[in-house]
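## retry 2 of 3
previous attempt timed out at serialization; input unchanged, resubmitting
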Amino acid sequence: MALTYADLLEVDLGKLGTAVSDWKKSVDALKTAAESARKGMRAKSDAARWAGANASVTREFVTKTTKEISDLHSEASSIHSLLSDGHTELVALQKKIRAAVQQEAPGLGVRVEDIGGGKVRCYFAHVRGDTDERTQEERDSKQELEDRINRLVAHASEIDSSLARALAKSHGGDKHNAGHRSYESLDDAQAERAAELAKLGPEMSDKQYMELNSIMKFNARDADFSTDFYKSLGGPKEALEFYGRMSLDGTMGDNKERLALTRQLQRNMGLALASATDPDNRSHLPASWSPEFRKLGTQRVELNPHSGMSAYGYQLLGGILRYGNYDARFINPIAEHVVQLHKKDPDRFMANRPVGASDLDWGFNPSGKSGAGYDPLTGVLEGLGHSPEAAKKFFTDPPTAYREDGTVDKKATLDFKSYFDELNRNDFEWPPDSLAHAGSDEAKHARDVGPNALGHALEAATTGSAWDADPPVLHRDEETWKIMEKVIGRYNVASEDGLPHEAMKDSLARMGAAYIDDLNYSIMDWGGTGDELGRGRIFGESGDGSTRNSFGQWEARNFMMLVAADEDGYQTLSAAHQVYSASGLASLEDNRDDGLAFAHNAAKVNGILDESRSHGIREEFNDDKAAINMELGKQAEWRKTLMTGVLTAGVAGGTALVLGPAAGVVATTVVPVVMESGASTISTAYGNHTMQYLQDNEYNNDPQALQKVQELEEIGERGAWSPVRNYAIATGMTQAEQLALNQEVEQSYLAGKMAISSNEKVSS
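## retry succeeded, writing output
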């Protein structure tokens, strides 16, 4: 019977702690007894000069008794280790769930209900007189709490099951025979069970599959467990064979339950491989696994002897690598080798696709995200997208030449200087990683998955956080900035290398949001006077401790014009700019001169973003006035409801911004904030210095107003002025001073719009 929510919340783990102490005493006593038996009666028996039948019987009895005492000690030691580990983990989980239920839930006005099956639901308790209306942020917080509690219960249930199973094996069930399976830790027992299940391969029942995934889900990041698990599979080849067989089994046919289990396994195996191949972990796989994987990469691995089905090693490894934060020493040589193989023969791996397959998802990427899994290039780029340090080194370190078998070729030379340059070539041939028939709707976007993965890898390299981290944490340094400088130099409206793939644009927007401080800083350089007029002092440092660097005024403007021309890109950059502006104005309330300079520049950036989107709309709809006005109206509505987003303040140097339904952007975006704006002030500053002003003053986006936003005049100007107005009030400006400031901010905003309008005339 599975452990329940009530069990974890209410059980007295002190009794288990007492049992751990008692077993420790037994272990110590049995150790003494075993040593005494070995050094005492066994030693005397072996040394005695006995003869005859009685001597043989006596010596055998002494030997067996000594062994039995030693076995009892081993069994007691195993039981103690299991109980101790189980107690430690359960106590930690119980502490977390009690804090969630007894502290967080009441604070949210939420109650927790046990609905059986190891699950709970959270709901808002009705209070008399309350309208029961909840904000999106409140609903999201309630759901996050419910999901977290359910994960804690599931984890505790898995520990309980593993512990019971391991204790049974340690005891063996024989009252007259000690010495059965011995474990040094609960990890050992869990790895052993996972290995037992893995040996069944596709013959695993769904129940057994669920058990394997449950064990791996909560232990994949534990290097002791993951290392033992991968070793139990055999070696690199056997690990690939297991994954390949399970992947084909799960993606074949229309069994949704089996596919869901296989997707979980793919994620679990990726996370486990990342922890098992990190040489900095106490337990890890031998360094030989990386070169062995490279050797297998271009070899066929047989998956089904009866059908002759085989796959290249890299096709299998590519599916695993999509998940996990990998050490650069493991994944980067593999990624380099894959890119070089692709450059030599772009169709090499895709030629191994099954012909005429009816299951379009049949392959080595059960996740269904970014391709069917036949080309490993996408897989390794997704792996880098989850491995920030490795991605940073991949795009900055000089390339190393590799032979066909994955060994280093010190005599060879490559015709490119960096992987950034190679992968960002306008004519780079991306693989169509799909089983869709040519000409079908599904095949239209087959070549998008590679650029999408490249965008993810660049996000990790520039922000220092996995592209889909929730929440992301900003870790920028000199190297990440240099990569971002390359991104801005490559992708902008003036680039001679062409526009980015559509699939990359969301990543470019999030990268822009992560560097919105440097984009603002770059814009404050009219006439090359930025440094002379003290912009370094005005912008100061961001919360991650980084100092400001300029991408160049024109480069920053051209990048923003490219990204903000699209709806999602505009929304991401605009929201990031509002958050950053709020933090800057909040930090400068005691310095009017610098605060006003910051406000003017912020208004100019507002103008740049607004006019970039207006330009994009006019380009998209050409001369269709009705369509243009409709899109501008949508933009105005979004700007008005910007505050539907969820703001999480003070996330390690930045702010995690989850843009709400109005934004149409799913991923969480990290935005740098000014250092002086700590977690305690940024949320307030966001309300005081941004679009919240529009809501507070009940600005209605009615038809009459919509008629005025053909050029975003109504909403755009209010958006530029409202944070400055609130700043002016906070610093005690008189009405006359505010009037003068209003006129100056108008000119700053119009300057930003004019800069983009000038570009538009040139481009047209």
